[in-house]
Here is the input.
Amino acid sequence: MTKMADNSSSVEIVEGCRLPVLRKNQEHEDEWPLAEILSVKEVSSRKLYYVHYIDFNKRLDEWVTTERLDMKKLQFPKKDAKTPTKNGLSGSRPSSPERDREREREREREREREREREVKRKVEPAPVAPQVPPVIPVPSLPSSAEATQAAVFPAVRETPTFKSREDHELTTNGNARRLIPAPPGRKRKANCGGTDEMIKVLQYNKPQSASVFLPPPEDSQDSSDGIPSAPRMTGSLVSDRSHDDIVTRMKNIECIELGRHRLKPWYFSPYPQELTSLPILYLCEFCLKYLKSLKCLQRHLTKCNLRHPPGNEIYRKGTISFFEIDGRKNKNYSQNLCLLAKCFLDHKTLYYDTDPFLFYVMTEYDSKGFHIVGYFSKEKESTEDYNVACILTLPPYQRRGYGKLLIEFSYELSKVEGKTGTPEKPLSDLGLLSYRSYWSQTILEILMDLKPDNGERPQITINEISEITSVKKEDVISTLQYLNLINYYKGQYILTLSEDIVEGHERAMQKRHLRIDPKCLHFTPKDWSKRGKW
Amino acid sequence: MSKLSFRARALDASKPLPVFRCEDLPDLHEYASINRAVPQMPTGMEKEEESEHHLQRAISAQQVYGEKRDNMVIPVPEAESNITYYDSLYPGDFKMPKQLIHIQPFSLDTEQPDYDLDSDDEAFVNKLKKKMEISYLQFEEMIDRLEKGSGQQAVSLPEAKLLLKEDDELIKEVFDYWSRKRKNSKANSLIPTVKQEKRDGSSTSDPYVAFRRRTEKMQTRKNRKNDEASYEKMLKLRRDLSRAVTILEMIKRREKSKRELLHLTLEIFEKRNVMSDFGGEVMAEVLAERALVRPQIIPLVPLTNQYRHQDHMDLKDYKSKPEKTEVPRQKRKYEKKPKVLPPSSGTPHHTGPVVFNAKDLNQYDFPSSDDEPFSQLHSGSSEAEEENDPDGAYAFRRKAGCQYYAARQDRVGSWPWCGQWEGGLAEARFRYSLTTVTMPRRCLGMARRRVGRGGRVLLDRAYTDFDNIFHGLDPDMLDLPFASTSETNTSERSSSFSSSLSPSSPTSTDLSQILLNIKSCRWRHFRPRTLPLHELDNAHPLFRRLSRSLKRPLSASTTGGQPFGSQRPGRVVPAPTPVAGRCNGDKVSRQLACSGHMSKCG
Here is the structure.
């Protein structure tokens, strides 16, 4: 690709423009996904563009220089869509009819390409077309694996995605969605990332790994005219898209130093505005207070004697501990924790105070103290069976089994309470993966342990699984479906365990060293309805 | 043939699902198509994010490999963990406590300043240190105060001097520095804080405003039980508060009465002084007179807390249910009392003008505020009281001014009714004698009295051959012509019924013999009237009069159905069914009555 820098001065790139932008993928290669310009700024007479890669998670959004823009394929914002303003609400949101039509066409094309590819590869059943957007060089799949896969995951999951998506937009939240155009870059095309938009260039870069879970918010239910209104007061996740303006669409903190870690935030967080311009925001590792400089942090540490989260330790096994913090009694810490967590949770809302929540902070002990690894929050009283509001493993600890540990702990609490629970919705991508994985392992553990009684086939009801695990019934069903265990056979439903599933499960369980030991939990649920409100 | 109807039944969560291994069902794939019937569950993600490239890739990778591959995971921005100065920043000397950490509420509220010194400040303080005494912490505290003292408008120097305790010179330096720094700062405060909501509601959409207070109440739909409970709590609170008001009013009244009593006592004292009644003779006389009016029949009424002082009350007026009518009466009784002075002054003090000895003072020892004298005045409490307290009105209660000694081992058993061989006094009036009770009016036969626990009078009955005859005796006949010259308060006296054989009595020889015996004083006849207690013997002349007056209301009322506790003073109350345990001829002791009160004997 040629450098566009020289030409760029002639054309003004404004917010809302779309064009391919260079980025490095996990295979150390460069690629040119389509991106949308969300903001433009000038730093020492050089223009910087904040881009959102369409159909990639917001956490990958970044400031890029002109060199990384492919000016040749620049698309200006549609006429009917105003350029995004600083206060959001208007911009290049799609959803205008023609845009939808355009998208439809694009998808059509995409599917065709997909089919061609499939045929070329000679894979029997056409799998999962829109769901698995043909990723870059599809890692050469061992064809045998692919074949078996096809049997296990039949086409059931194929087109409905598409359909339901459309339906959803038209019905459920049709109001909101259609009248208020989503903020820039929010809508993704189902299938962009097609080959023509992804130009691969060889490069190297470290692949990043992740395993955070962020349960993001309820679908929007905001007022239809875009007038900002206060969001609902229950739950922890954004339900109001009107606040999802251009400011909150963009990361505002460059780097956070927490203990021995430097974290690159993924999303906006409402730290005091004067601190957002700092190259590094310093946090006290134990009380999570934010400080503008290392000097301040040093001074703070002479005064802060915390060496663990300021709550009651309700679990300890080995070096892993859990602390319970009341959002009403310990506002400072709770707010600091929320500010930090918001950096990694897209849909988390900090609109309201922390009073109705409990925070369970998981720590790892060493000679310096109890270091925060992750946490989840939980409504003291949930009207909707939520046993988790937000849940997060801090990035340095991700992909090491801590997330599953947090989830397991949340269900142990529910077991003590004698309730079933489910995480608050919406789930994030990482949240979905983690929960699915936890549910799968938990349920398979039970199914594999079932012994035939009296020579009869072992059998179990969904309700029983739910009671044993405290996993809400709906989640049990969705997991069984996801694993494709439910089959209709000779007039009744049965659960079938394929060899692949069994082997995969055994392999996964071998890797799962970190487990919660219920004996180490010292927890008495409180009846919050009898206490003062929150 | 196996592919049946396309539409399968809905999945039933309560129906057992048999678990198969796929290899056991080779024909399973034939049925695969029907699986469509199981509705697809939503993932719980935002629809638009569900289709994100990396997620879909990860999901499909998971499906293909059964696990995630490193290059198939969702990429995230990087994090580093190699801060070199970390070890010097945080001390590494923290020992894990053996116990689970339990934090005390409020232990976190340290007095440390929120402001943290930065490099500029450090330079400034170091420079200042050359001129005057100041530490980093002191500087931080000063800035902290200045910051917290300022709202939108920074504090002025004079205000600063009020806020800070240091000497003026230091204040001036720090204040100037602070003002400059604050002016140059973009932020509103030098202590960075999360933006607060504005009162006017203009900040609803400011993305930097966080942690707003929840103004509306959360739905209480789910907590209706809770609402009910709190409503009841409110009711109880209201009741308690109104009770407190009543108690305060009563205390006020009591204190007024006490003052009045004091004045009257003083008046009496002065009068006696004028009359030169130094020996207390006049006083004693008055007391004797007054005793006619004010009987000292403490035991006759159920003694409960709130009536501790009812011995001053007119018995006739006494009502078993304490109502408001009680209040004015109390006043009256207190008015009366000063004239009365020590009730125990039946044993007059002859030693000079001893009007107030310690004992007398105790008489005026009204229930103090801690005594909760009125605690039971209010409705509702009495039933509960009875449940908790089986002895009810007869439960032992300490009386102000009395000393209580433990029973002495060597004296146990030396009761007046015990024989000499038991160390007792064997007083005649406690021997077995013919006994008649008043309610129902009949002769019981032979019985003897003794005083039981709490001053109850017990009657031990003995079986004799004459029981039939005794029961046939007409009590009225026995009752008739008493000259009442006997020395005791009981009617143990020579009963002189000369005539009147009951016509019904059959065995006339025996009967007449008995009557004769009785008449001729050879047999003692006991007819309880009032207290059988020797302590009160000296008040005797009154007693009869009183007992007569008491008898009237008592016998008139048919008290049978009333609960015992609320009954009219149950003097020596007869056994309802007198024959309960007569079988053996031995003395069968039956607790008949319960009106004794021994407090006076200390």
Q: What stands out?
A: The longest strand of chain A covers residues 369-379.
